Amino acid sequence: MYYVLSLQNKQRKSSSICPFVSEQVIDTLPAKSTGEHVYVEFRHERIAKNEMICRSQAFYQFMNQRRTLRFFSTDPVPIEVIQNCVLTAGTAPSGAHCQPWTFVIVKDKIIKTQLREVIENEERVNYDHRMNSDWIKDLGPLMGTLHVENEIVKPYIEEAPYIIIVLKQQYGLKNGKRIAHYYPMESVCIATGILLTAIHNANLVSLVSTPMGAENAIRSLCNRPDNERVLFFMPVGYPADNATVPYRNDEYLRKSIEDILYIV
Amino acid sequence: MYYVLSLQNKQRKSSSICPFVSEQVIDTLPAKSTGEHVYVEFRHERIAKNEMICRSQAFYQFMNQRRTLRFFSTDPVPIEVIQNCVLTAGTAPSGAHCQPWTFVIVKDKIIKTQLREVIENEERVNYDHRMNSDWIKDLGPLMGTLHVENEIVKPYIEEAPYIIIVLKQQYGLKNGKRIAHYYPMESVCIATGILLTAIHNANLVSLVSTPMGAENAIRSLCNRPDNERVLFFMPVGYPADNATVPYRNDEYLRKSIEDILYIV
Question: What GO molecular functions are on record for this protein (chains A, B) (predicted)?
Answer without folding.
Answer: iodotyrosine deiodinase activity
